[in-house]
Design goal:
alpha+beta; Immunoglobulin-like; Neutral Protease, domain 2; 3 domains; eight-stranded mixed β-sheet; five-stranded mixed β-sheet; 13 helices; globular; binds zinc ion
């Protein structure tokens, strides 16, 4: 169990990693991306209408250097370009031209071996696996590596993704439009952030679907076919189920527990409306991500122990906590992950009871699911966790225990009030200062300062 949980926890860290961007009133860049998939390769036809602005006069884009460009045109004239690292420098015949229309044709290899070469260009990526997975599902984790893009905080983007009719797209942002032609599905998105992640998946690969309605929200679960599923670990022995009735009851637990979590967060944090929440199973090992219009999860999340304690309700919690934190600011992982995981445990307490909750906290204190030896850490150390040297135990054990200590000192009502005051409707990306301001406003500053004196 340890292994699986450790891996799971590892991955939970990634779901809220986002680079903050500011909205500015400028012309939207329009991407029309036509994607075909054959022989483990994505065939891309891309049309980009971009506009130069005061902030962006340079003629370059980020683009993975391992992707071979087969055809490229700039304003209907063959594009001249040079490449260096992950930058594509374009030669513009008319420097004064403000509008750029680029057409590109290229392939993205997705087979394991071929995609490894592309992965090499991913030293800055949080994931080791950018696109590839299997023949049915492709997760495009870093937009900027696969499509010409620029990280300059100045633009907004309209993206049309067109795929064959047998595929469907789930993306980080809700689609603003979707239409179908005889043989294609086309999805339109708008985004302002500096990344845009999406999953292309074959649509007919989910034999088991669950749909439940909770208040006004539809929860749609897409489960992959499976001959057996891990149910639990009893006396350190894995227990598998193969029977379709048993599996169906496992799916029911997932669906009902998720619906319950939604109610809990809505009641205890604040009310959010979702028309539809999609949950999509992938074969991407250890991956669970809340992508704001859907939740991606893999099969390691689907055994009872994980379902009970962590997986789905943790990801659902990220609709409230974790997605709008200032990227890599001090306390980033505490504010995005530890707090969310602690909220998740409060939800756990609501249905599993006080003793189960206390035991779960003890597991965190003792680093029960960790493979590394026990250690103590200060609050300062937790707050200083950075991407590069991130210790998962720091965030999912120590950080959670600090949140718990604080909650114990001030009481659950006050704690939840501070969470609401900090995270609800921010007009900017949240920092530790915002959290501390809420603590001061709620008269808990002195108690909060005590955390800095503890080693847990
Ligand atoms: Zn998380």
């Amino acid at each position: 169990m340890k292994k699986i949980l450790t891996f799971l926890i590892l991955v939970l860290a990634f779901n809220s990693i986002k680079v903050s961007a500011q909205k500015t009133e400028i012309k939207s860049w329009n991407y029309n991306i036509n994607i075909d998939y054959k022989d483990s390769t994505l065939f891309i036809n891309l049309n980009l209408e971009a506009y130069k602005t005061e902030n962006w006069k340079r003629n370059y884009f980020l683009f993975n250097r391992y992707i071979k460009i087969e055809k490229a045109f700039l304003n209907n004239i063959p594009l001249k370009y040079t490449r260096s690292n992950d930058t594509l420098y374009i030669e513009s015949s008319n420097e004064n031209e403000n509008e750029i229309n680029i057409y590109m044709q290229y392939k993205i290899p997705c087979s394991y071996n071929e995609s490894l070469k592309i992965t090499k260009a991913f030293s800055d990526s949080t994931f080791a696996y950018p696109v590839q997975f299997d023949s049915d599902q492709i997760f495009c984790e870093r937009y900027s590596k696969y499509f010409p893009f620029i990280y300059d905080n100045f633009s907004n983007y309209t993206v049309n993704i067109t795929v064959p009719k047998t595929y469907q797209v789930y993306a980080e942002h809700n689609e603003i439009n979707n239409k179908s032609t005889e043989d294609r599905n086309c999805y339109t998105y708008k985004f302002f952030d500096e990344d845009f992640r999406f999953l292309i998946t074959k649509s007919n690969i989910f034999p088991s679907k669950k749909l439940i309605k909770n208040n006004n929200t539809y929860l749609k679960f897409n489960f992959l076919p499976s001959k057996k599923r891990l149910l639990s670990y009893l006396n350190k022995k894995p227990k598998y189920i193969t029977d379709s009735i048993q599996m169906d009851s496992l799916y029911n637990v997932i669906a009902n527990r998720s619906a319950q979590a939604l109610i809990w967060y809505n009641t205890n944090l604040w009310e959010q409306r979702f028309d539809t929440l999609n949950f999509v199973e992938t074969k991407i090992p250890g991956l669970a991500v809340n992508l704001h219009s859907f939740i991606l999860f893999d099969r390691s999340l689907m055994n009872m122990e994980v379902i009970d304690n962590y997986a789905f309700s943790h990801e659902i919690g990220h609709f409230w906590v974790g997605y709008n934190i200032k990227y890599l600011s001090k306390g980033f992982y505490f504010l995005s992950e530890s707090i969310n995981e602690y909220n998740n445990l409060l939800f756990y307490e609501s249905w599993a009871g006080e003793t189960a909750f206390e035991n779960a906290i003890k597991d965190k204190i003792n680093m029960h699911y960790s493979d590394i030896p026990f250690f103590k850490a200060s609050f300062e150390q937790v707050l200083n966790q950075k991407n590069g040297d991130l210790k998962y135990e720091m965030i999912y054990c120590k950080g959670v225990v600090f949140a718990h200590k604080f909650c114990k000192m001030i009481g659950k009502e006050k704690y939840l009030k501070i969470i609401r005051d900090t995270y609800r409707n921010p007009n900017h990306y949240i920092t530790l200062t915002d959290f501390e301001e809420s603590i001061k406003k709620n008269g808990c500053w002195n108690k909060y300062r005590k955390l800095y004196k503890l080693k847990l």
